[in-house]
């Protein structure tokens, strides 16, 4: 599956104002557990710049803003970005910025210390996941924390947890790509047989 990026962005914009309470009851505890692990493992320092790719309504970005120096949220959906900005304004959170950016081109020129992404990379087919992870490595972060749909077991489960728009990779494939681009995978958290969090640290990073 390789949905055109504009169609995907429109689809998210249409549900943006309901996104935060829209997750099905079957998925929500798993989604919450995954998000919590991404936030915990990101563990930014007070002067760190954190980049959240596929930030959506800013769940992860806003949660990290209290600990980080600056947080940059990037997404392809104007509607989701609008929700994230509105939440930041409502919360008086000033060290975050939200704007358009894709995995392959986050449109941020500054230094990045930590990259996070939660439940977004699965929208790309495997070949583009590889390109996306290469682009993330090129930003030079010391850590990349990826929470997403990913298969710990079968790649063709009889009862998929998620429906539309999911193109989950295997954990093995993701670990291989992360290793190929120069990260060391330091933690693998299994949230569900189809959901996990990978923590990747840059080789030689401090
Ligand atoms: C399921 S939402 C997750 C949002 C948020 N990270 C969270 O945990 O709530 C997936 C998000 O990824 C964004 N997205 C999909 N493909 C993308 C791409 N190629 N580059 C950047 N964002 C993308 C979508 O617009 C959407 O907001």
Automatic annotation (TrEMBL):
<dbReference type="GO" id="GO:0032259">
    <property type="term" value="P:methylation"/>
</dbReference>
<protein>
    <submittedName>
        <fullName>Type 12 methyltransferase</fullName>
    </submittedName>
</protein>
<keyword id="KW-0489">Methyltransferase</keyword>
<feature type="domain" description="Methyltransferase">
    <location>
        <begin position="50"/>
        <end position="138"/>
    </location>
</feature>
<keyword id="KW-0808">Transferase</keyword>
<dbReference type="Pfam" id="PF13649">
    <property type="entry name" value="Methyltransf_25"/>
</dbReference>
<dbReference type="InterPro" id="IPR029063">
    <property type="entry name" value="SAM-dependent_MTases_sf"/>
</dbReference>
<dbReference type="InterPro" id="IPR041698">
    <property type="entry name" value="Methyltransf_25"/>
</dbReference>
<dbReference type="GO" id="GO:0008168">
    <property type="term" value="F:methyltransferase activity"/>
</dbReference>
């Amino acid at each position: 599956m390789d949905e055109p990026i504009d169609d995907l962005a429109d689809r998210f914009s249409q549900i943006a104002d309901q996104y935060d309470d829209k997750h099905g009851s079957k998925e929500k505890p798993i989604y919450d557990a995954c998000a919590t692990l991404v936030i915990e493992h990101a563990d930014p320092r007070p002067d760190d710049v954190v980049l959240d790719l596929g930030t959506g309504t800013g769940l992860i970005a806003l949660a990290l803003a209290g600990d980080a120096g600056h947080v940059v949220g990037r997404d392809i959906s104007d509607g989701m970005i609008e929700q994230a900005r509105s939440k930041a304004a409502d919360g008086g959170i000033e060290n975050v910025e939200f704007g358009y950016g894709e995995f392959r081109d986050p449109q941020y020129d500054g230094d990045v210390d930590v990259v996070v992404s939660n439940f977004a990379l699965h929208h790309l087919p495997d070949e583009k996941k590889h390109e996306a992870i290469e682009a993330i490595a090129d930003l030079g972060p010391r850590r990349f924390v990826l929470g997403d749909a990913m298969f710990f077991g079968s790649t063709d489960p009889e009862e998929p947890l998620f429906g539309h728009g999911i193109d989950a990779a295997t954990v093995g494939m993701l670990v291989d790509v992360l290793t190929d681009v120069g990260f060391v995978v330091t933690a693998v958290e299994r949230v569900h047989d189809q959901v996990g969090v990978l923590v990747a640290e840059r080789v030689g990073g401090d």
